[in-house]
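2024-03-11 09:14:02 DEBUG pipeline.ingest accepted 1 chain
2024-03-11 09:14:02 DEBUG pipeline.ingest length=441
2024-03-11 09:14:03 DEBUG pipeline.predict start
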Amino acid sequence: MNETERLTEFKEHHWDMLLDYIGQGRVVPVIGPELLVAAEDGRNVPFYQAVSKRLACHFDMPEVEGETLSDLLARFLRGNNTVKMARTGLIKVLKELEDQPQPSLRRLASVTAFRLFLTTTPDALLARALAASGTDPDVYFFSTNYRRRSDLPDKKLLGRQRYVYHLYGKAAPCFEYAMSDDDRLLFSCEWLDSQVKPRNLLSYLADKYLLILGCGYENWQARFFLFGLKGSGLFSNIWDASSLLADSHTRTDSQLDRFLSRCRGNIYYEGGAAEFVDELCGRLDNTPLSVPESECDAFEKGSIFISYASEDREAALKVKRRLEALSLPVWLDQHMLESGADYDELIENNIRNSSLFLPILSRTTARETGPRYFRKEWNIAADQALRSSPKIPFIHPIAIDDVEPCDGILDAVNRVHWIHAAGGELQESDIDRLIDLVAQL
């Protein structure tokens, strides 16, 4: 395709947009087979090329140069063999190869802002890469058998957990999963059925930007695939961009280029999926993610409310960012506005609609004797605590220095368990407890 015909080229300003979206938690990577590799005869080859070669040997079939796994399985089934035999053989070969290192997947897995990963292949390589990065993901999968179909637990992912969703099924005994292009077409039809599609997953994806890496679908298949994930939202104007496709095929497909230009998609022309991952991770290494601060009135019901004195602002922001990195909704007053009737009402409503109240305690808050706004927040929280369930404490003070309970601190704050976080650095055990409390609520 000539440069003048590139309607969807991913340019420098798109990189700024993408990094901003990642910081906001709005990006979901979709992993295709092009990112997967296997070591054969001392060199890396496409993973499913190695699978096809070993599967031919397993079935005692002659190898055909350049034959895809889809074609191999079709040839196997034409020999009066069963699908069950094909699945059994494929599972065996996948287990033999799944210990292969996957550098591109591991680099993606190291980006902790990605909470959900989608995969179009049935192997366990993506889950293994995430586990190697330090987090065992929860794994879900779609199936054409409704009794075995799974969905995300909720449309809004909370906590530090990471998720893998197999769009075309997961290779395992007694499970149905796509092995060939024909199978993927059948799965895609199921995705369009409103009665069986995974509602929580699709609800979560509705306002997300998709990084489609290494799928390499033909024009019609890419359209079908994108519409299955985004539905009518593919053509909405909610966001100024909806997806990026990076693989070795898409950048040569002029018809797909024109289609993507109509639904705000982009194509990466500088290389394939692995090259894109390298550039993305390099930019992330050199440019820390910038997460925009919440506006004063941007309060979400059920958020964690952080109360602090202006002197302790940096520690309060550190607590906020730590919790937000785990996808927990958090609110604090960024602007330190003066007291007034409208503002007082806003603060009281926010506290009463919060899930938890976290007052930041320090020697400053303990020794202050004059009127300070954080004391008004403490009193509202103390009243709200009386209305809350005694099984789930509402107030959770965070001590950021060596402050101790004293007369300068409200009794309702003094008498509950304190979290000790020097300088605002929360401990893992305290984070786990807060996550559990929010989940219970």
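2024-03-11 09:14:41 DEBUG pipeline.report The chain has a mean pLDDT of 86.
2024-03-11 09:14:41 DEBUG pipeline.predict end
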